[in-house]
Design a protein that fits this description.
Layout: E1 4-8, H1 12-24, E2 28-32, H2 35-44, E3 49-52, H3 61-69, H4 74-77, E4 81-85, H5 92-98, E5 103-106, H6 111-126
Parallel strand pairs: 1-2, 1-3, 3-4, 4-5
Helix pairs in contact: 1-6, 2-3
Bound molecules: manganese (II) ion (MN).
Manganese (II) ion binds near residues 10 and 11.
Length: about 130
Amino acid sequence: MGHNVLYIEDNSDNMMLVRRVIQSGGHNLVEARTGLEGLAVAESQDIDLILLDINLPDIDGYEVARRLRSSKKESLANAPIMVLTANAMRGDAERALDAGCDIYMSKPINIFELLEKVSALLSRVAQGNDL
Ligand code: MN
């Protein structure tokens, strides 16, 4: 019954925290540590929701979001994307939304807020509604 949540993140502490939160919600966390790895995983597996860091070792999260949105795989092009980043400067949220992301959340990660937002996005996926 659980959903597949992809987290693209190069920081191990954040990965471990989010893994616990997602698993506690009854979902499966699929992990990627670079932007290009994340894109490859997203194209090859069934992913319901993408959690995305911005500062990655190769391409940044904005570019990842743009490439996800232009995917030929329709379920992926429409999948919800939530940005999780410490780039809490003015304009970053807008930039993430412009790149095709649905929601922006600042680090440090608040686990209750994360679980609440993930659940809300996944229930929309389950209902088949476009975001
Ligand atoms: Mn990072």
